[in-house]
Amino acid sequence: MTTYSSELKDSILTKLLAPNNVGVPQLAAQTGIPRDTLYGWRREALGRARRPRASTVPDATLDSEEKFAVVVETATLNELELGAYCRRKGLFAEQISAWRTTCQHANAPLASKTERAERAEILRLGRELQRKDRALAEAATLLVLQKKVRAIWEEPEDARSPMSGAYK
């Protein structure tokens, strides 16, 4: 695997991204760098640009009660008011949305040991059923193939035993 310097990568990215917007196939032909590598670099650069910056108030500094208070405060705000609130507090709307979801699921019933055991048993039985289905399909295929071989060689079906291969 070829390693490229960060300077080369940065210069290629400036050509790939706006305002230059040179096509990947054209750059691949010019530089000799594989298309997949260029597409990956572009995808990474665009993803990095779209990702929100780290918040000024990280999750770790707010305890559960403060997060709940933020959720309650913002429950009645419209989108514009929520944006202003987030700017004022140094938060992101995505954070508040995630906290709201966590609060909504806070009182969901926990699965008991018997429910977990039943789920595990269902999964085990499902895997066993899939294994047996595959074995059955393989056996059916072998029987069909055996019948076709007999038809090709014009061997009577009752002349050989399917299990032992010996003549009767």
Automatic annotation (TrEMBL):
SUPFAM superfamilies documented for this protein: Homeodomain-like
Protein name in the entry: Transposase IS3/IS911 family protein
Species assigned in the record: Thiocapsa marina 5811
